[in-house]
Design goal:
- The chain has 16 helices and 13 strands.
- The protein is of the alpha/beta class.
- Strands 4, 5, 6, 7, 8, 9, 10 and 12 form an eight-stranded mixed sheet that branches.
- A hairpin with a 5-residue loop joins strand 2 and strand 3 (about 75-80).
- Helix 4 runs antiparallel to helix 5 (about 125-145).
- The longest helix has 22 residues, at about 125-145.
- The structure holds magnesium ion (MG).
- Magnesium ion binds near residues 245 and 295.
Length: about 425
C-alpha cells in the first residue's frame, strides 16, 4: 500500500505549469490538504491484475476466486451451483484479464462476456465464473479506493438488508405439518420476519407417477397442510413463502397457487421451470398468490422476457451466478421499470451474502434476501470466511462499512474443506 504515491505525483504533475502563481499555490495547498484526508490505499491508475486463482468446496458447487494485483491488493469473489468442473475456465478468464486495471470493472465484464460469445457466454458456467471474477473486482476496487462496495455502486437506499430464513426442511426427509410449524417458529425465535419452505417431494408416497410433473390431489393436500401449519404457527404478520424448484407442470402450478391463496404467501417460487415466460404469464394471471422466479436465469437479457410480458410478480436472481454485482444492479433496475420487486436467491457463504447485500442496498426495489439455516448449524461457514460476530441481527444484515465487500476468505479454514482434485489457489 502506498498512500503517498498519488498525492506526490499529482502535485509534481499539476504544479509544473503554474509555478509562482500565488492563486494556484493557495488552490494547490487546499487541494493537497483535501487529498491528504483521503486515505487512498493504492495508486489506482497504476493497478494491474497479475493473476486469478481459485478454490472449490461442496463438490465444486461453490467457487471462490482471488484476483491478485501488482500492488498486493487482492479481491475475493464467489460463485455457486453452475461451477463444478470450471477450474480451467477460471484460468482462461484470468489470462484474458491479466494486465488490465481492475478498476475498469464494467469494461472488463463486457470484454470477457463478448469474447466468450461463442463459448457459452449467454448463461451457465461461463457466466457463473465471470460472476465470481467480477465480484472480486468490486472487492478489490473497494479496497484500493477505501470504500465499501455499495458506495461504488452509487450509494445505499438502506443501512440493513432484510433476510428470510430458508429452513432447509428437505422434502426427501418427509417432514410433516408439525415440522413446518416448528421450523417456522424456530426461525421467528431467531428474529426472522420471513421464512421459506420447500414443497416439492420426489418420494411423496401419494405420487402416482415419478416421471411426469403432475402432482396428485394427495400431494397437493400435503403441500397445503404443511404451509397451513406454518402460517398457523407464526400468525399473520410473518411472511411465509414456498419453493417448488420448477419440478411441476403448469396445471399443477396453477392449482397449488390457487389452493394456497387463503394463506397469503409472500410468494410461491418456481412451480414450473423458469425458461418459458408465456407459461409463467398464464400462471401468474391465474392466481392472487405472488409468483417468483429466476434463480437459474442469467444476465439482464435473461430477465427481459419475464419482465416485459409481466410473467412474474417478483424476480429472484442468484447474485453468485447471474453475471456479477454490476449485472445484478442492472437486473434490479430493469425490474424496477416494471415495478417488480427484487428478492435475490442466496445459497453461498458469508462472502456471497455480504456481496449480495451491497447490491440490495444500492437499488430501490429490493424486497428481501435469502438467508440459510446452515449458517447457524454448520461450523464450516465460520471457518471458511472471516466474519466477526453474527451477520444477521434481528432478521437483517447490517451493511458492512469496511472497504470492499467487507468479508475475507480464510484460506487456512477453506483448505480444510476444499475439493482435493483441483488445485487450491494455485
Ligand atoms: Mg428456489
Amino acid at each position: 500500500m502506498n498512500s503517498n504515491y498519488s498525492r506526490r505525483s499529482f502535485l509534481n504533475k499539476g504544479a509544473a505549469g503554474a509555478l509562482g502563481l500565488t492563486l494556484f499555490t493557495n488552490f494547490a495547498n487546499d487541494l493537497f490538504a483535501a487529498v491528504q484526508k483521503q486515505n487512498l490505499f493504492s495508486a489506482p491508475s497504476d493497478l494491474k491484475i497479475t493473476d486469478v486463482k481459485c478454490a472449490y468446496i461442496r463438490s465444486g458447487h461453490s467457487l471462490f476466486v482471488k484476483v491478485y494485483t501488482n500492488q498486493d491488493i487482492v479481491g475475493h469473489g464467489e460463485a455457486v451451483d453452475a461451477t463444478p468442473g470450471t477450474y480451467y475456465l477460471v484460468r482462461m478468464m484470468g489470462d484474458r484479464i491479466k494486465d488490465e486495471n481492475p478498476l475498469n470493472i464494467h469494461r472488463i465484464f463486457e470484454d470477457v462476456r463478448r469474447r466468450g460469445f461463442f463459448e457459452g457466454a449467454q448463461s451457465g458456467m461461463y457466466i457463473a465464473v465471470l460472476t465470481a471474477i467480477e465480484t472480486a473486482l468490486w472487492d478489490l476496487a473497494g479496497k484500493a479506493l477505501n470504500l465499501p462496495v455499495y458506495q461504488l455502486l452509487g450509494g445505499k437506499h438502506r443501512d440493513k438488508i432484510r433476510v428470510y430464513m430458508d429452513t432447509a426442511l428437505y422434502q426427501s426427509q418427509l417432514p410433516g405439518p408439525e415440522d413446518f410449524a416448528n421450523s417456522a417458529k424456530e426461525a421467528v425465535d431467531m428474529g426472522m420476519t420471513a421464512v421459506k419452505f420447500d414443497l416439492d417431494q420426489y418420494n411423496d408416497p401419494k405420487k402416482y407417477d415419478h416421471y411426469n410433473w403432475t402432482a396428485s390431489p394427495g400431494e397437493m393436500q400435503r403441500m397445503y397442510d404443511q404451509m397451513a401449519a406454518a402460517r398457523e404457527a407464526v400468525g399473520t404478520e410473518i411472511d411465509i413463502c414456498a419453493d417448488m424448484h420448477g419440478r411441476y407442470d403448469l396445471t399443477t402450478g396453477k392449482r397449488v397457487a390457487k389452493m394456497l391463496e387463503p394463506l397469503n404467501l409472500m410468494w410461491l417460487e418456481e412451480p414450473i421451470p423458469a425458461e418459458n415466460s408465456d407459461a409463467y404469464y398464464h400462471l401468474s394471471q391465474s392466481t392472487s398468490t405472488p409468483i417468483c422466479a429466476g434463480e437459474n436465469i442469467y444476465l439482464a437479457h435473461g430477465f427481459r422476457p419475464l419482465l416485459e410480458k409481466g410473467s412474474v410478480d417478483i424476480i429472484m436472481p442468484d447474485l453468485q451466478k447471474a453475471g456479477g454485482l454490476g449485472e445484478a444492479q442492472r437486473i434490479a433496475n430493469l425490474a424496477n421499470l416494471y415495478y417488480v420487486p427484487f428478492a435475490p436467491h442466496m445459497v453461498a457463504s458469508y462472502l456471497g451474502a455480504m456481496a449480495s447485500s451491497h447490491v440490495c442496498a444500492s437499488v430501490p426495489n429490493f424486497m428481501i434476501l435469502e438467508w440459510q439455516i446452515y449458517f447457524h448449524k454448520n461450523p464450516m461457514f465460520k471457518e471458511i470466511v472471516h466474519y466477526e460476530g453474527e451477520m444477521v441481527v434481528d432478521g437483517f444484515i447490517p451493511l458492512s462499512e469496511k472497504p470492499g465487500i467487507g468479508v475475507e476468505i480464510n484460506e487456512e479454514g477453506l483448505a480444510k474443506y476444499a475439493d482435493k482434485e483441483v488445485p487450491f489457489f494455485a
